Amino acid sequence: MNQPSQKRPKKLLDQVRDAIRRKHYSIRTEEAYVRWIRRYILYHGKRHPKDMGIPEIEAFLTHLAVDRKVAASTQNQALNAILFLYREVLKQDLEGRINAIRAKRPKRLPTVLSREEVRRVLDAMSGTPQLIAKLLYGSGLRLMEAVRLRVKDLDFAQHQVVVRDGKGMKDRVTVLPDSLIAPLQEHLQRVKLIHERDLAKGYGSVYLPYALERKYPNADREWIWQYVFPATALSKDPRTGVVRRHHVSESSVQKAVKKAAKLAGINKRVTCHTFRHSFATHLLENGYDIRTVQELLGHKDVRTTMVYTHILNRGAMAVRSPLDSNHGDQIAL
Q1: Cα–Cα dist 35/92, whole Å
Q2: Which domain holds residue 227?
Q3: Catalytic residue chosen out of the listed positions 39, 44, 164, 167
Q4: Which of 70, 314, 317, 332 has the fewest CB neighbours in a 10 Å radius?
Q5: For 86-100, how does the pLDDT look when each residue is reduced to its tens digit (9 = 90+)?
C-alpha cells in the first residue's frame, strides 16, 4: 500500500515572505529583507540560520561595515531583516547583545535650494513629474508618499493632504498649496477617464492596503481608492498575479528631477528629497515654529527637524561675517 506523500515544508525564504505578508509590510520591505537574509546565509557558506546565532550575526554585520563599507542605514536594514528572521520565522530567541562594528553615520547637512532655484527646477519640468515635484516642495512630501496618494487623500475643501502610512506607519496631515488645487483637479479629470476605460475593459482594480480588499470587496474599483498618479500601463501584481494599474514609477520622477536640475544650471546635487528639505527650511525662514514644521514633516523627534535650523540663510542665530561688517574699512592682509 502506497504511503500518502507528505507535503514538503516551504523553503526558508518563502516562509520569510509569508511572515512579511502577514505583517502587511510593503513589497519593498519584503524584497529588501529577503535579499539581506539570503546574503547572510551565503556569507556563512549556506549554513541554516537555526544553527547560527549572535556570533554569526556580528560577523556578517562587521563584514558589511568594514569590508563593504555600507552606510549606517544600510547596515541597520540588514540587522532588522536578520532579527525578523529569528523572531518571526524561526521563533528563536537571541540571547545577549549584538556587538558588531557599526557603520558610522555621517553628519551631513541636507542640500537646500533657494526659492529662485526651486522655481528654475520646476519651470524646467512638465506634465505629471512637474505636478509631483510641486507637491514635494509645496507639501513637504517624501517621494513615495506622493506617488502612493489616493484620490480620497486630497482634501480640496480643507486645503490639505492626508498622508496615509507614512514613514513609521504614521498618518499625518500637511498643507495643500492653493496654487495646486486647479491643476490637480484637472489632472484627476484625466485620470478618471483612464479609470473608466479600465473598468470598461474588465480591469480598474487597484491594490488596497492590508485587509481592506477582503473587508470591502468592491472598494478596489471605487474611484476614491484609485492612485492620484497612476502608471501609464497595466501591470501584474508580483504577489497576487492580478493585473492592475499601479502608481507611477518613482524612478521616472527621480530622472525628471535630475534632468531638470541640470537644465536649470543648478550646481548642487538635487534629488526629489531636496524639495522636502527646501520646504522645511523655507517655512522656518518664514517664521513658522519648529513644532509646526515637525508635524507637517511627520518627524517623530523634533531633533530631526532641528537640522534645518542650522542651514537658515538668515535668522535669530545667523552670523554675519566680519568681512561684511567692514564695508569701508581697510583690512590688513
Answers
A1: 20
A2: 108-316
A3: 167
A4: 332
A5: 999 999 999 889 999
